[in-house]
Amino acid sequence: MNRFSAFLLLACSAVCFAQAPQIKSGSTVYIEPMGGYETYLAAAFVKRHVPLAIVTDKDKANYIVRSTVSQNVPSTPQVVVNNSATATVNEGDNDNQAWNQGWASGQQAAASRAAKRAALGSTSVSISVIDVHSSQIVFASSADKGGTTDQVTKTAETCAKDLKEFIEKSNKTKK
């Protein structure tokens, strides 16, 4: 029983003293080519004031950003058909008829908006920040945006915002 207690104490202390991954403010980062997405990501880092220095030489980087980008663009346009049929109603049902017509009109408008968003497609992105010395993934984030014309930009900005918050939080806990 004593060996088991000693082993348990040793295992718990190793977990307690393990450091959470951190990215130091001002570190250098290399963004791997991603079919043009790296430009959006670099611009988002600058726009969101991510406290990292972006370098173009992989050998001078403290961290490497790897990403996967997936875009889903429908091949055929969406068509919305008006199928609302107006039923004949008694005079006492005028309130219900007005409500039903309003509801049908709202449903049509919602279907039209959904079709327009679907026609724009969607973009899904995931990024990983890897420490070049230990090969440890120290940060990961993902974003999914759809139905906007600037979804690639928005996904990059979401990942940049998440990274900035992670760096600021880890630098605060260090102090």
Low-confidence stretches: 4-10, 13-18
> What is the H-and-E element order?
HEHEEHEEH
The largest sheet is: 5 strands, mixed
In terms of DSSP E residues, the strand content is 15-25%
Overall average pLDDT: 77
User: What is the total tally of β strands?
Assistant: 5
Report how far apart the termini are: 40 Å
Proportion of helical residues = 40-55%
Task: Give a structural overview.
With 175 residues, the chain is α/β, with parallel strands linked by helices. The chain has a domain of 108 residues: Double Stranded RNA Binding Domain (2-Layer Sandwich). The chain has four helices and five strands. It has a five-stranded mixed β-sheet.
Features:
175 residues; 5-stranded mixed beta sheet; 21% strand
Structure summarized in a few sentences:
The protein is about 45% helix and about 20% strand. It has about 180 residues and is an alpha/beta fold. It has a domain at about 20-75 and about 120-175: Double Stranded RNA Binding Domain (2-Layer Sandwich), CATH 3.30.160.670.
Write the layout of secondary structure elements.
Elements: H1 2-17, E1 28-31, H2 37-47, E2 53-54, E3 63-72, H3 94-120, E4 122-131, E5 137-146, H4 151-174
Parallel strand pairs: 1-2, 1-3
Antiparallel strand pairs: 3-4, 4-5
